[in-house]
């Protein structure tokens, strides 16, 4: 291996440097809540761990806790790995739009319910899924107090946030007794900051930044200026287009999350640690990406920053 396969958190715990997601793509394809366990996802997660993934990412809003629990039970029963060798991340569904009322009284109750559903004693990482606090009578301070309680009780080994702007992250950092260890955001070559300065702020505070949507330039934003460059680099390094972009994310110091049902793609993705992009190719991807702006997720929350971000990149009209 040419690269560390873990990032170290402020707690000293080591988080596997690439994660397998049971996220929005699975939430869309899964039958409605209350139906039998979605075996396709269970099989995919078991296959992912067999292929070498050690980091599984889920969330309350995905409604995939039953599948995650079933997959982990099979993984442990078959002796593929021990529980302590598996990293499980979960997230509290704070809400993403006005009018949503959380299903529970807050993150404490939600994680306890999630652990019961997944039949786990703890998760390795628990995140607030967004910066919004929509439950009447609650605020960021009260939510974070519940997160700290979860960590103190050992139900969550580490705590962090997802989809926080730099302003909200700063607010949280000032009030927190136990500081967040992870920030998970959309991060890809066409969106190198979900909101102004947030990646830099997180890294300065020693948080590990995780990227969802790292392959958006190849999927949702196909046809952009990176297409030709990534194709050329794929030939140069003898690696897939997917692997080139995931490696770019990793070499920028960010942990990529991805998913697939195909075992051959899982095995391909896990070659991320077997090669490195040279400095000039990293620069080319970074600068080419900055020349095209694309936001793939939750524009109703973060779209307000688009003009400021475009202006900082010289893309504003």
Automatic annotation (TrEMBL):
InterPro entries documented for this protein: AKR (IPR020471), Aldo/ket_reductase_CS (IPR018170), NAD(P)_OxRdtase_dom_sf (IPR036812), NADP_OxRdtase_dom (IPR023210)
Keyword Repeat attached: no
Domain NADP-dependent oxidoreductase: from-to ranges: 35-287
Binding annotation for substrate: 129
Site feature location: Lowers pKa of active site Tyr: 91
Domain of life: Eukaryota
Keyword terms, alphabetized: Oxidoreductase
Name the UniProt record assigns to this protein: NADP-dependent oxidoreductase domain-containing protein
């Amino acid at each position: 291996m040419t690269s560390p396969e873990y990032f170290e958190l402020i707690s000293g715990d080591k988080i596997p440097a690439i994660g397998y997601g049971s996220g929005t793509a699975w939430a869309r394809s899964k039958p409605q809540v209350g139906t039998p366990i979605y075996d396709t996802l269970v099989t995919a997660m078991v296959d992912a761990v067999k292929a070498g993934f050690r980091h599984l990412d889920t969330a309350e809003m995905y409604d995939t806790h039953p599948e995650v629990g079933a997959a982990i039970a099979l993984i442990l029963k078959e002796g593929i790995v021990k529980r302590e060798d598996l990293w499980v991340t979960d997230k509290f569904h704070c809400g993403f739009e006005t009018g949503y009322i959380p299903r529970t009284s807050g993150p404490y109750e939600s994680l306890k319910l999630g652990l019961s559903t997944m039949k786990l004693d703890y998760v390795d990482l628990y995140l607030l899924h967004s910066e919004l606090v929509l439950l009447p009578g609650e605020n960021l301070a009260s939510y974070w107090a519940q997160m700290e309680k979860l960590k103190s009780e050992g139900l969550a080994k580490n705590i962090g946030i997802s989809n926080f702007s730099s302003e909200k992250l700063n607010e949280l950092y000032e009030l927190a007794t136990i500081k967040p260890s992870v920030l998970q955001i959309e991060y890809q070559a066409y969106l190198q900051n979900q909101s102004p300065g947030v990646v830099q702020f997180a890294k300065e505070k020693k948080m590990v930044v995780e990227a969802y949507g790292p392959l958006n330039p190849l999927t949702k934003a196909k046809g952009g200026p990176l297409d030709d460059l990534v194709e050329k680099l794929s030939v140069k390094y003898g690696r897939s287009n997917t692997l080139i972009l995931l490696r770019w994310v990793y070499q920028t110091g960010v942990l990529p999350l991805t998913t697939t049902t195909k075992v051959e793609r899982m095995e391909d993705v896990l070659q991320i640690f077997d090669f490195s992009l040279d400095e000039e190719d990293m620069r080319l991807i970074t600068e080419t990406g900055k020349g095209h702006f694309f936001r793939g997720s939750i524009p109703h929350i973060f779209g307000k920053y688009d003009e400021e971000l475009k202006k900082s990149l010289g893309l504003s009209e």
